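Help needed: design a sequence for this.
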């Protein structure tokens, strides 16, 4: 099996999406504010990366969805919502990241050497 066949080459978003989903689920607990600040950076970065990959794949709808998630979790201009609202958003976004793991965002893009 060549390099094209590895899981990371087929799904380059796997690790960032899995980390973001796990952190979003853990955020449902009671943590110090620093954890939620770190969460914003991780989720915003992972969502922006998945949006960029989606732009180059056969899933253009995911560009808008993950761009919205990146804006929602933007650490530079935070959106302030109630803890209950953030809990629902954390759960919904965790599900979105899990679904993104299942989708091959590489599409028909060819690797250039």
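Sure. Designed sequence:
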């Amino acid at each position: 099996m060549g390099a094209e066949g590895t899981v990371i080459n087929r799904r380059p978003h796997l690790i960032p999406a899995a980390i973001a989903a796990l952190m979003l689920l853990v955020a449902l607990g009671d943590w110090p504010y620093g954890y939620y600040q770190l969460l914003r950076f991780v989720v915003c970065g992972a969502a922006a990366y998945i949006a960029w990959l989606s732009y180059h794949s056969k899933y253009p709808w995911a560009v808008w969805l993950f761009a919205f998630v990146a804006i929602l979790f933007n650490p530079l201009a935070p959106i302030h919502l109630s803890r209950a609202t953030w809990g629902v958003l954390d759960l919904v976004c965790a599900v979105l990241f899990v679904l993104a793991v299942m989708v091959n965002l590489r599409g028909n893009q060819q690797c250039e050497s």
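The mean pLDDT is 84.
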